[in-house]
Amino acid sequence: MSVSRIESTFARLRENGRKALIPYVTAGDPDVESTLAVMNAMVVAGADIIELGVPFSDPMADGPVIQRAGERALRNGVGLADVLAIVRRFRSLNQDTALVLMGYANPIEAMGRERFIEVAAAAGADGIIVVDYPPEESVEFAAAVRAAGMDLIFLLAPTSTAARIAQVARMASGYIYYVSLAGVTGAGHLDLDDVLMHLAAIRAHTAIPVGVGFGIRDGATARSICSIADAAIIGSRIIQEIEAEPAQAALRVGRFLTEVRRAMDTTGEGAS
After folding, report:
1. Please, what is the Cα angle at 203 between 171 and 149, to 5 degrees?
2. Parallel, antiparallel, or unpaired: how do β-strands 20-26 and 231-234 relate?
3. Cβ-contact 23, 50 below 8 angstroms
4. Are the C-beta atoms of 20 and 10 separated by less than 8 Å?
5. What is d(CA 160, CA 185) in angstroms, rounded to the nearest whole number?
6. In what order do the strands lie in the sheet with 231-234?
7. C-alpha torsion 135→221→228→188, nearest 10
């Protein structure tokens, strides 16, 4: 099986002693054209992988900031088909930056799993995160995603049991998304020692890269996380930049991520 764009991205970063910057944006917030502009600004600022959120009416794992983004996108009429169209447009101009679709089961089930995988792969997606697909029920889906040349990325949390970690380690590809806080996105503050302990438990089961998200607010926290993790994943803080001045969304996000990238690259730590 060929190496995915996500795998090759982490391999290249490892060779260069760098860590992955993975920003998140909700598709369609504040509108479709702004989303594409924000994604392009992310690339220029140094993003290695982009997580593109699929708007959903009941985003149970998202905090109020990303919930508001989803609500704005849904008011704009943006659904899964529109998100896949954004992927196609982005990919037509960028063949290098890995792109991960992040969302919930309902829109996928409405389209049909097989059809979704086919269309997502054809559009140029590299990975999929389905927040509410438990690994116990995702064996066939994971195999189909991998057969289409994409990675299925799972979330683990501080509350994940050893059995759940082992199961995710067997099924995951691309990277594992470690949720650093128990709760919803945008909450709390990072306890680096606690994150380190949980990353050690995950790495006891797998060599797949582990990215850390939830609670990364600036370059300093991204740099701290990247001293122990393979990637910094940033979502709510980016949405706040978009909310602050929607007409200048791309400019604000690009400026913010440029500072984060600079801080990450001064960490002095090699890739794990």
Report:
1. 35
2. parallel
3. yes
4. yes
5. 17
6. 151-152, 127-130, 98-103, 49-53, 20-26, 231-234, 210-213, 176-179, 155-156
7. -40
Q: pLDDT category, 61, cuts 50, 70, 90?
A: low
The answer to whether residues 156 and 150 touch, using CB atoms and an 8 Å cutoff, is no
Strand partners, 130: 103
From CA 11, how far away is CA 204, in angstroms rounded? 20
**What 8-state DSSP symbol labels residue 97?**
S
176, 231, 198: which is closest to 13 by C-alpha?
231
Question: Which two three-digit tokens encode residue 3?
Answer: 């190496």
DSSP state of 24: E
The catalytic site residues sit at 51, 62
What's the alpha-carbon Rg for the chain, to the nearest Å? 17
- Residues 234 and 194 sit within 8 Å (Cβ to Cβ): no
Q: What is the pLDDT of residue 182?
A: 56
| DSSP-derived pairing of the beta strands 151-152 and 155-156 | unpaired
Domains along the chain with CATH numbers? 5-152+227-264 (3.20.20.70)
Tell me the C-alpha to C-alpha distance, in Å, between residue 248 and each of 87, 232, 252, 259.
22, 24, 6, 17
Q: Quick one: tokens of 18? A: 């760098």
Distances (CA, A) of 268 to 10, 48, 136, 183, 217: 17, 18, 39, 31, 20
What does the pLDDT look like over 162-211, one tens digit per residue?
Answer: 999 999 999 999 999 999 875 444 444 678 899 999 999 999 999 999 99
Amino acid type, 166: A
